[in-house]
Design goal:
By secondary structure, the protein is of the alpha+beta class. The chain has helices at about 25-40, 40-50, 125-130, and strands at about 5-10, 55-65, 75-85, 85-95, 105-115.
């Protein structure tokens, strides 16, 4: 069974367009923040400072099923799977309170890269923390 990570996000007025609905690119920011919480900020900083390794979004596919509005508190639900020695697949969903389906679904592919922007195998420290 795949672990589901939860990350709450408060929707502020600045996140919305003139109609009070979240401006669509902001969901990429919410997903990025949720992934950082899953991986852990200290781990990300250590990988970069100590090993010169980071992660880059290789591909993102978003499906918008419902709007999210000013003052909503949403739950970003995240799962992650391994896809080879360089890449992880992230499924991220935006859930409104009492919803019966996700408002937004994001499928994000991320790769591990070194400081020279070359693909690098996912580090052991990351693999152990994420996949056991």
């Amino acid at each position: 069974m795949t672990k589901i990570y939860h990350h709450p996000v408060q929707i502020y007025y600045e996140d919305t367009d003139h109609s009070g609905v979240v401006y669509h690119p902001n969901f990429l920011k919410y997903f990025e923040r949720a992934r950082e919480h899953v991986i852990d900020s200290d781990r990300l900083a250590s990988l970069w400072k100590d090993h010169g390794l980071g992660f880059a979004v290789y591909k993102a596919n978003l499906i918008f099923q419902e709007g999210v509005e000013f003052a909503d508190i949403i739950d970003i639900r995240t799962t992650v799977k391994l896809d080879g020695k360089y890449k992880t697949l992230w499924r991220q969903e935006v859930w409104r309170a009492n919803a019966t389906k996700a408002a937004v679904i994001g499928d994000i592919e991320m790769v591990c890269m070194d400081k020279q922007k070359r693909l690098h195998p996912l580090p052991d420290e990351f693999m152990i923390a994420m996949f056991g």
